[in-house]
Structures are given as structure tokens and as C-alpha cells.
């Protein structure tokens, strides 16, 4: 009798003590890395307490806001024709850089006590190297500073660069007093004081471990020796010529060559004499 009396009281308490299983949503891979134009699988797995037909939504989170990927049983226009749904998992085909970003899978179970669960994952779209642009001078003078540049601005992640001279890799120098330096991240090969021995055919290779490495077209750099004695002799000769010309002009000026009128077409010609005696003589003659 006592058990029968306490049973209606104990039963609700026992029911309340039973743990409630909420909607659980998970993913097998929180970071998905795929090459551009390939296939990407965005995993989403869920368990519900009672609801056997929960509502599934996919959203993409961007700086400008959140946009729908999958909503109300269909894909958004941007994903139509290249996306498919299996359970709650989405497979994207021919992914591009526009697909890169953070995604959220949401599962809503209206019949459950805990009605909403979600998981977040990131899609990284990788771009293999493109043919890098290279700046290789055709000529240089010994002792001058020369920089060779290599850049691929499209690869994701950013590429590392390797320079080659006559098809042999140019590795970073091991000692500090080397005449050159090379930066694999920026792609700049710098000769601090170039020598004739640095002449050769140079090309650069870009590699980011996505796809095959790509190289630019090589160019031959010729290092010419600076003719210091010839330059000094030319300067001395030029100074001698200027000095002789200056002395000649000064001598001519002192001798008065610039003040004489030679070869004038009116030489010996002057105006008629205005002597008064000549005038009187002329008058008497006329009388």
C-alpha cells in the first residue's frame, strides 16, 4: 500500500532524472583543403532525440554577412548544378576561390526538447603555381649591385622560389660575407657586388606544394668589366683640350684679334671735308 501511494509521486521525479539527449551535430573534418576546380566534401552528421525528419540548413559566413547555401530543401542559385546533398553532407564540384570560407551546418528538430544543433567548418581552396614573372637584367657592370626578381601573385598558399644559374640551383649562402643573398619567400636574388663569374643563364621556379612547380623563361645576364684606366685617360684628355682652348682664347684676346676690323668693304672711305677755307674757295670760283 505504501508503494502504491508513493508511486505517483516518484514517477515524475524519475522521469525528470532521465537525461535528455539533445540534437548533436558534428563534422568529420573541420578544415577541408582542396585544389581549385576539384571536388570538396563538407561533412555534417547529426543525431536527434525524437524527430526523424529534422530541418537542415547550410550557411556561409562572410565579412559582409551570412548567406544561404542550402535552405528549405534546395540549394541557392550560386550552387545549383554543382552541389549535391547526402544526409546533411554537401559535396561541391568544381570549386573556385569564391567557395573559400567558413560554413555552418544547422539541424533543427522541432519534436525534440533541445531543438537546434550546429557545427562549423572551413573550406580552403588551394591554387597551384602559375608561371612567375621574372626580372633578369641582360647586362651589368662588375662591382655594381644587381637584383633579380621572381613573383607569382596567384598561388595559394604563397609560393616559395628557387633560382637557377645554368640549370643549377642557387642556394642561400652559408657564410655571412658572401657576395650574394637569396630570399625564397620574396623571390629576390641580390648580388651585392656582381663579378664576371656571375654571368650566366638565370631562371626562377615557383612551388607551393599544390600541383606542379612552374618556371619563368630564362634570360642570360652578362657582366662586363669596368675599364677604369680607359675612363681616367678619357677624362685627362678632355681636360687638356678644354685647357688648351681656354689658353688660345685668352692669347687672342690679349693680341687684340677680337678688336680689329679687317676686310671691311668701305675701307678708306670717309665723309666730305667740312673745312671753311674750302667752302670760301668754292664760292670765289663760282663768282
What would your notes on this structure say?
This protein is of the alpha+beta class and 287 residues long. Among the domains are: 24-126, Immunoglobulin-like; 133-224, Sandwich (Immunoglobulin-like), CATH 2.60.40.10. The protein contains three helices and 21 strands. It has helices at 2-17, 228-254, 276-286; strands at 24-26, 31-35, 40-42, 45-47, 55-62, 65-71, 74-75, 83-86, 89-92, 101-108, 116-126, 133-135, 139-141, 146-151, 160-165, 168-170, 180-183, 188-191, 200-207, 214-215, 219-224. The strands form five sheets. Strands 2-11-10-5-6-7 form a six-stranded mixed sheet, with no helix packed on it. Strands 13, 15, 16, 19, 20 and 21 form a six-stranded mixed sheet that branches. It is elongated, with a radius of gyration of 47 Å. The model is unreliable at 1-7, 9-18, 263-269 and 279-287 (pLDDT under 50).
What structural keywords apply?
single chain, 287 residues, Immunoglobulin-like, six-stranded mixed β-sheet, disordered N terminus, disordered C terminus, membrane, transmembrane, Ig_V-set
Amino acid at each position: 500500500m505504501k508503494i502504491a501511494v508513493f508511486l505517483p509521486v516518484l514517477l515524475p521525479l524519475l522521469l525528470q532524472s532521465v537525461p535528455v539527449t539533445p540534437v548533436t551535430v558534428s563534422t568529420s573534418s573541420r578544415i577541408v583543403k582542396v585544389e581549385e576546380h576539384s571536388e570538396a566534401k563538407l561533412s555534417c552528421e547529426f543525431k536527434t532525440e525524437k524527430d526523424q525528419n529534422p530541418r537542415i540548413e547550410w550557411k556561409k559566413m562572410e565579412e559582409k554577412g551570412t548567406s544561404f547555401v542550402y535552405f528549405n530543401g534546395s540549394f541557392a542559385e550560386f550552387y545549383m548544378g554543382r552541389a549535391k546533398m547526402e544526409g546533411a553532407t554537401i559535396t561541391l564540384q568544381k570549386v573556385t576561390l569564391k567557395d573559400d570560407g567558413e560554413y555552418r551546418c544547422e539541424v533543427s528538430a522541432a519534436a525534440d526538447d533541445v531543438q537546434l544543433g550546429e557545427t562549423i567548418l572551413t573550406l580552403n581552396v588551394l591554387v597551384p603555381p602559375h608561371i612567375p614573372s621574372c626580372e633578369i637584367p641582360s647586362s651589368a657592370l662588375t662591382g655594381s649591385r644587381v637584383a633579380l626578381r621572381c613573383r607569382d601573385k596567384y598561388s595559394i598558399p604563397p609560393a616559395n622560389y628557387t633560382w637557377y644559374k645554368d640549370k643549377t640551383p642557387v642556394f642561400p649562402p652559408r657564410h655571412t660575407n658572401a657576395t650574394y643573398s637569396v630570399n625564397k619567400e620574396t623571390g629576390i636574388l641580390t648580388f651585392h657586388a656582381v663579378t664576371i663569374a656571375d654571368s650566366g643563364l638565370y631562371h626562377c621556379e615557383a612551388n607551393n606544394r599544390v600541383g606542379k612547380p612552374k618556371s619563368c623563361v630564362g634570360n642570360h645576364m652578362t657582366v662586363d668589366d669596368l675599364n677604369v684606366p680607359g675612363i681616367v685617360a678619357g677624362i685627362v684628355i678632355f681636360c687638356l683640350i678644354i685647357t688648351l682652348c681656354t689658353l688660345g682664347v685668352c692669347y687672342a684676346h690679349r693680341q687684340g684679334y677680337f678688336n680689329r676690323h679687317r676686310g671691311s668693304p668701305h675701307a678708306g672711305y670717309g665723309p666730305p671735308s667740312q673745312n671753311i677755307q674750302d667752302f670760301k674757295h668754292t664760292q670765289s670760283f663760282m663768282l
